[in-house]
Amino acid sequence: MRVALTGATGFLGRYLVDALLAKGFEVVGVARDPDRVPELRDRIALRRADLLEPRTLVAALEGVDALVSNAALFSLSEGSPAAYTRVNVEGTQNLLAAAREGGLRRLVHVSSVAVYKGLPFFPADERHAQWSERDRPSRFTAYAISKALSEQECWRSCARDGIALTTVRPSAIYGAFDPNFTRVLRRWLAWPIVPAPVLARLPFVYAGDVADAVAECLARPSSIGRAYNVAGEPCSPRALAQAFYAAGGGPKRPLVPVPLPLFRRFESAAAVRDLGFRNRPLVEGFRDLLVRERAAGPSRML
Ligand SMILES: NC(=O)c1ccc[n+]([C@@H]2O[C@H](COP(=O)([O-])OP(=O)(O)OC[C@H]3O[C@@H](n4cnc5c(N)ncnc54)[C@H](OP(=O)(O)O)[C@@H]3O)[C@@H](O)[C@H]2O)c1
């Protein structure tokens, strides 16, 4: 099966390339700048397209059997509400229109647990209430709302056009070449004394495990019509720090407890049951991350 992958040159995109190839799919990477990650050139076909340029998307999807919609705007440091709406909502609409025009029959959309609104203390499963068009995006909610609206658009559009859809909702992802959470984690863990919130539990998931779950969706028709949380078990900042140092991520620093209550938990039982999803232990994830980055050379480390 020939699979188009948007955002192939991004953080999760590079793991998705590996996971799709490992499953035996032929991969067509769709990227704004196909030269951004030169080592992809030898492994997959690359086509240039932008979510905001509809004609480029039609050309990029020509002759493919399935699509993994992974490209989106996500940044912990930048991104206005207008930019999130434009890229994530309107860009996804453009992609869906191109899929329709190309007669595509299968789509796996990378969504996010950010789609859930008003998170409870107990674990949120896939039926939890989502952000909707009635919610006004602010700087803090714009990404979450845009991910909810873009996924909802996928369900509507695919139902209308007869495209078989699965959506995957990862929690915060860490891994190699990650410009977001992993970069912040590294800066935090390199402070001479590291403040470690004692009341916080965060569900980090390794990028390789998210990518495997996405590839598994394509391989298993039983996933059609379903949404899957793929989230890590909530871990304390202390456990995260210890795993990072134990994996060789940097010199060990003293951890100082600070009170900061922050608790997020998502139920991934459906992905475990249907896709064989497993989030590897943190120390394994950090080791794999470091191996990947060191293999690419010091100039490519974040
Ligand atoms: N990171 C997380 O913790 C997390 C958690 C849950 C869900 N997700 C979702 O996972 C997916 C991948 O995110 P990521 O973390 O890998 O972020 P990333 O590294 O920023 O990757 C995003 C990809 O989207 C591409 N892109 C952005 N705007 C585009 C546009 N206008 N046209 C075409 N492509 C565009 C980027 O292209 P360039 O390569 O040219 O920059 C990049 O390849 C997203 O759907 C995100 O919402 C991420």
Protein model, in words:
The chain is an alpha/beta fold. It has one domain (2-174, 204-232, 264-280): NAD(P)-binding Rossmann-like Domain (Rossmann fold), CATH 3.40.50. Helices cover 38% and strands 17% of the residues. It is built from 9 helices and 13 strands. The strands form 4 sheets. It has a 7-stranded parallel beta sheet with strand order 3-2-1-4-5-6-11, sandwiched between helices. Strands 7-10 form a two-stranded parallel ribbon. It has a two-stranded parallel ribbon with strand order 8-12. Helix 1 (11-22) crosses helix 6 (207-219) and helix 3 packs parallel to helix 4 (142-161). It is globular, with a radius of gyration of 19 Å. The two termini are 34 Å apart. The model has no long low-confidence stretch (mean pLDDT 95). NADP nicotinamide-adenine-dinucleotide phosphate binds next to helix 1 and helix 3.
User: How many discrete structural domains?
Assistant: 1
Query: What would CATH call the architecture?
Result: 3-Layer(aba) Sandwich
Identify the CATH homologous superfamily: NAD(P)-binding Rossmann-like Domain
Tell me the major beta sheet.
7 strands, parallel
**Which radius of gyration do the C-alpha atoms yield?**
19 Å
Q: Care to count the β-strands?
A: 13
- The SS-based structural class is alpha/beta
What small-molecule ligands were found?
Answer: NADP nicotinamide-adenine-dinucleotide phosphate
Helical region count?
9
- CA-CA gap between termini: 34 Å
Strand order of the largest sheet: 3-2-1-4-5-6-11
Shape, per Cα inertia axes = globular
Highest-level CATH class: Alpha Beta
Sheet-strand content, in percent, reads: 15-25%
